[in-house]
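User: Okay, second chain of the day. Same drill as before: sequence in, structure tokens out.
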Amino acid sequence: MKKLILMVALMLTFGFVNAQKIFAVSNQAFADVKVFVVDNQAFADLLVYKVSNQAFAGKNDGKWFFVDNQAFADKKIYFVSNQAFADIKIYFVDNQAFAGWKNSSKKSLFY
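Assistant: Same drill. Structure tokens below.
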């Protein structure tokens, strides 16, 4: 009975954690998505807010939590130095209310 209660509690806990966990790789060959950080949000496909706890992260809505181990990541990204080589352009915002997609055609890259 204790095991059943523990399993139900764990399933409920992890079922409500809806985090988009990101890991930045050092080699583009290991990346799922190549990312370029733009200087102006007008040129971005996605406005990203970096959350401090994975419980506050969203699911493909621009609220990212950076993990320390790629085994725990939903997506692995590589930061490119030239936007011509990027799959997506992002801009880091200071307020989570501004996070979100500006170009929803690229949303599938993070599913």
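The CA atoms of residues 21 and 74 lie 5 Å apart.

User: Thanks, on to the next one.
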